[in-house]
# Entry
Amino acid sequence: MYPVQFSQEIESRLDHLAKVTGRTKAYYHQAILQYLEDLEDTYLAHERLENPGRRWTMEEITKGADLVDD
# Structure
């Protein structure tokens, strides 16, 4: 995982949030990273819906067909 640096203002907000909720700042850093991952997953899902690419039948999958999307 890559370290994330926030502005001093954001760090102060995270400090305050950690203090009033009893959670650690690391907890909120992780929550922010998880939110970014969720956004990326959502974007990927929308992209796949718009451009689905090749689809395989169950028969092709069970027979071990060459499942490379050209």
Notes: The chain has one domain: 8-62. The CA atoms of residues 57 and 63 lie 10 Å apart. The radius of gyration is 21 Å.
